[in-house]
Hints:
Bound molecules: adenosine-5'-diphosphate
Shape: rod-shaped
CATH superfamily of the largest domain: Histidine kinase-like ATPase, C-terminal domain
Helix content: 40-55%
Radius of gyration: 38 Å
Strand order of the largest sheet: 2-1-5-4-3
Structural class: alpha+beta
Oligomer: single chain
Distance between the termini: 83 Å
Amino acid sequence: xxxxxxxxxxxxxxxxxxxxxxxxxxxxxxxxxxxxxxxxxxxxxxxxxxxxxxxxxxxxxxxxxxxxxxxxxxxxxxxxxxxxxxxxxxxxxxxxxxxxxxxxxxxxxxxxxxxxxxxxxxxxxxxxxxxxxxxxxxxxxxxxxxxxxxxxxxxxxxxxxxxxxxxxxxxxxxxxxxxxxxxxxxxxxxxxxxxxxxxxxxxxxxxxxxxxxxxxxxxxxxxxxxxxxxxxxxxxxxxxxxxxxxxxxxxxxxxxxxxxxxxxxxxxxxxxxxxxxxxxxxxxxxxxxxxxxxxxxxxxxxxxxxxxxxxxxxxxxxxxxxxxxxxxxxxxxxxxxxxxxxxxxxxxxxxxxxxxxxxxxxx
Length: 363
Ligand code: ADP
């Protein structure tokens, strides 16, 4: 009964089983092994198992410790030490091999239990590929977002440079050019070009959450510095810009980032469609118990209902050609100042955006 049992295990086991001698020659194989390797393994002269499985070091396996070590490394649960095998029709396969020694008439043999782990390895590779793809796409998206952000922030100073240089060029073409005015326009263009360079530097610091640029600033001066751009933008839409910022207000902040914040909010206010009345935008500042509050209000139609929940989400926009980045940049800036940005009812009847900047002692 025992011999039949052993024979049934050897012949019919669902796992490939082969017996090799100490030179690695195959001396016996079951039907699963023959099917797996795609041929009868027991022919004359004897085939070497190394022809079918790479990197097998069977001749070294003499002591029980070496055999135990080999078996431990070969488990599928191990750290991926699957062996490569030539499956049926020469197809690439992966196997885990465990061995057990036996002797017959003073000759030593190894029984090899060969487990086909190709489906597991294929699935693991697919998961790894997917993970790589996800990470890659995420990086690509972030890169795209950063690129859009930079483009968005540079658009304003660069447009101003073009406008000032255009104005200077028009003056130069006149019969008796006014040198003072021309110089003034060129200096303004230069100022805006420097501002563009500054924006890039500050964006980099914003992304690395570096607050090194924060210093006590006179808010009225911070706003006054961007007045030329605000006036230019307002002229395009014949808007009126009102400013209520006390010259007394001194706030610890990043000057350029706060200017960027105000510019973005004013630009949005000027974009809001108004047909039946003159556009009005008000920028006001108010010292609070724990810091400072900047409010930008307009007399437009207010925020569209479908936008209220995703105003500060990147890429959310109702404008044709809008990038939907302005408000998300505003939020990043305000948060870098330990504060909060939110919408509020505007005293002018349209939308209002309130930004709190915390004094560093409260942050
Ligand atoms: P974008 O200006 O490119 O659309 P923003 O992030 O600056 O991106 O603005 C997102 C959206 O918020 C705008 O498309 C608009 O629908 C709404 N929004 C922002 N500011 C105002 C405002 N002052 N009045 C009405 N809607 C506004």
